[in-house]
UniProtKB/TrEMBL annotation:
GO cellular component entries: chloroplast
Primary site of residence: plastid
InterPro entries given in the database record: Aldolase_TIM (IPR013785), HMP/HMP-P_kinase_dom (IPR004399), PM/HMP-P_kinase-1 (IPR013749), Ribokinase-like (IPR029056), ThiamineP_synth_sf (IPR036206), ThiamineP_synth_TenI (IPR022998), TMP_synthase (IPR034291)
Family: Belongs to the thiamine-phosphate synthase family.
Keywords: ATP-binding, Chloroplast, Kinase, Magnesium, Metal-binding, Multifunctional enzyme, Nucleotide-binding, Plastid, Thiamine biosynthesis, Transferase, Transit peptide
Chain spans, region Disordered: 1-22
Recorded metabolic or biological pathway in which this protein acts: Cofactor biosynthesis; thiamine diphosphate biosynthesis; 4-amino-2-methyl-5-diphosphomethylpyrimidine from 5-amino-1-(5-phospho-D-ribosyl)imidazole: step 2/3; Cofactor biosynthesis; thiamine diphosphate biosynthesis; thiamine phosphate from 4-amino-2-methyl-5-diphosphomethylpyrimidine and 4-methyl-5-(2-phosphoethyl)-thiazole: step 1/1
Catalytic reaction(s) noted: 2-[(2R,5Z)-2-carboxy-4-methylthiazol-5(2H)-ylidene]ethyl phosphate + 4-amino-2-methyl-5-(diphosphooxymethyl)pyrimidine + 2 H(+) = thiamine phosphate + CO2 + diphosphate; 4-amino-5-hydroxymethyl-2-methylpyrimidine + ATP = 4-amino-2-methyl-5-(phosphooxymethyl)pyrimidine + ADP + H(+); 4-methyl-5-(2-phosphooxyethyl)-thiazole + 4-amino-2-methyl-5-(diphosphooxymethyl)pyrimidine + H(+) = thiamine phosphate + diphosphate; 2-(2-carboxy-4-methylthiazol-5-yl)ethyl phosphate + 4-amino-2-methyl-5-(diphosphooxymethyl)pyrimidine + 2 H(+) = thiamine phosphate + CO2 + diphosphate
Gene3D superfamilies xrefs: 3.40.1190.20, Aldolase class I
Span of domain Pyridoxamine kinase/Phosphomethylpyrimidine kinase: 27-270
Thiamine phosphate synthase/TenI domain segment(s): 300-485
General function of this protein: Essential for thiamine biosynthesis. Bifunctional enzyme that catalyzes the phosphorylation of hydroxymethylpyrimidine phosphate (HMP-P) to HMP-PP and condenses 4-methyl-5-(beta-hydroxyethyl)thiazole monophosphate (THZ-P) and 2-methyl-4-amino-5-hydroxymethyl pyrimidine pyrophosphate (HMP-PP) to form thiamine monophosphate (TMP).
Name of the molecule in the record: Uncharacterized protein
Higher taxonomy: Eukaryota, Viridiplantae, Streptophyta, Embryophyta, Tracheophyta
Amino acid sequence: MQEKGGSTLSDDSRTKTPHVLTVAGSDSGAGAGIQADLKACAARRVYCSTVITALTAQNTVGVQGVSNVPEDFVAQQLKSVLSDMQVDVKTGMLPSVGIVKTLCKTLREFPVHALVVDPVMVSTSGDVLAGPSILSTFLEELLPMADIITPNLKEASALLNGMQLETVDDMRSAARLLHNMGPKNVLVKGGDLPDSSDAVDILYNGHNFYELRSPRIRTRNTHGTGCSLASSIAAEVAKGYPMLSAVKVAKRFVETALDYSKEIDIGNGPQGPFDHLLRLKSHSQACHRQQPFDPSDLFLYAVTDSRMNKRWGRSIIDAVKAAIDGGATIIQLREKDAETKDFMESAKACIRICRLHGVPLLINDRVDVAIACDADGVHVGQSDMPARVARTLLGPEKIIGVSCKTPEQAEQAWVDGADYIGCGGVYPTNTKENNITVGLNGLKTVCMASKLPVVAIGGIGVSNARAVMEIRTSNLKGVAVVSALFDRECVQAETRKLHEMLLGSNIGST
């Protein structure tokens, strides 16, 4: 029996949520500092609490003002979080000796699993955020407590009394010297390394050096990269990953966000922010389809097939363009045999075509590709990722369709947050092996039970589409077609023929 006021769950049965506490300054422009830390942790799916050490007035031009938070209130924030929550800690801007000492004292009182120290002293734009008086306290008290420190070249030089860092060998020497000061791991970031075509970072754990290289991304939108990298490392460590893996994942994450954001335009200064959540660009592009899902889009649903395109010597891009020109109202890319890299490039080109014509484009099964390409949604089968998981990954605005053969499956699709169901195969088809058909009666049964709009699929073409639509249920909105469009010499002509037949059957009045 549970005692009055007791917990309903034992400590062992409760799931620990990965949790990072960031101790840093607030950036009014939201590119760096606390704001970047929050966004980075959110992107890495880790909960983030905050202790604010300073308020800054800054934008893409630079820092116009800094106001430190009183030390006693920093201490109060720290105790409030650490006395209640199990966290890993990431530090950023620590603007005074007193605040550094306060942090160290509190961490001795409330030990944490991991401490990631980003020794923020100078902003990338050159503004001083922590004076030289703090250096000795950093070196004597904070660094020996750290599981990893993540200085850039300027910060590493400052910590090493002005040591010049101009080569990768210099970075290795700096990492070794900094490690001798007490931190378990040192990551010297070489983003500003002169005459280097790569972004080179050096990780040293006291035994081994790891040289982490990646192509340099040419962009002005680099504000907050240091904060974001350190927060991402803390996030991965909070998930339980070893330090080397955490650093590698964090570095790849920041690179991906920088590459995605290189054309985003925010502010008028020389250094803009980047988009941690990989969402902004789609909303800033004029060609982005921003309308909510419209069931009438299911009217003529064209599903591509890589084997058919190969058989007829056409690219997926040519197939999609021809289907749209013929009257297709929604496109699904079902490319089971294509390599992921090739599929991604083709999907991006198809999305541009679809957006120009106002036609939504979905990806079959591959949620990862849909996210990377900013497709309008996905279609999943019963053996694929559950719709509720796809909805969690894609967000509320994307379209999700589910293949269903029974009223029970249709009900589950509605519960899981799908937008429509694809019911079939209605007729036998050669596009899927061992595909059980439901027939017209099965289609009608599912339609009558479904709370979602329905598109019929499976063996449908000009010869039988009218019979499908004549079952006359109000939520049957169209037909999905594969072979009848794409296993033909002229996709455009076949699509137009089917489109005209569907219009002539007066579907809109059902």
